[in-house]
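User: Thanks for the earlier help. One more: FAD dependent oxidoreductase. Can you show the sequence and predicted structure together?

Assistant: Of course, both are below.
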Amino acid sequence: MTFPDVMRDFGKKTIGLHTPEELSREIKKEYDWNSVLVAGNVEESIKRLSEEISDEFKKVDYFLIPDSANIKDKNEGIDSDIIQKFNGIVYDYNSYKVKNGTTRFLGNLPIETMNGFVLTDRFQMTSIENLYSVGSVSTVLSGVAAAIYSGQIAAMDIGRKFDRKTKADPSGRFPFIPRESFWNESWQSKIKKYDD
């Protein structure tokens, strides 16, 4: 699923970037929704997220976006009749990624993976020291999307370290960038020491 335009319909769609608790608070505060459709293309993840937020809203359901959906599909393949039944759609971030189909080429390398993704630390280092994951840029066609989303994921990792009160747009956050709960948990607090 690669739909960079989901944020165009502000007020009806958002990406689930936080913990379920923080996401629920954000939806209530920013959008005032009482019925939520959780959408994504990893069924286990969207089902779990919908269960975790179900007590916070009057109505919660999930929609599995088919792998055949593409960027030309209106509403990411979700039928408009389904959309009308909910105040808003939460796109599960665990699904809102380019699926990494290259992990099968790792062979016997002891690189930790999960659901087809290479697990990394915040600087994209894999479970093998000094081996970094930078996406699956292997052909012109696959490379463009992978490079864009590798950058997006890196930006999210850095962005979630920002102070939660940092404002950049009317939604109260940088687009696609979640944050840690406290500024001191971020790398910014270390930079601040050098600025003094």
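User: Great, one quick takeaway?

Assistant: The CA atoms of residues 11 and 152 lie 22 Å apart.
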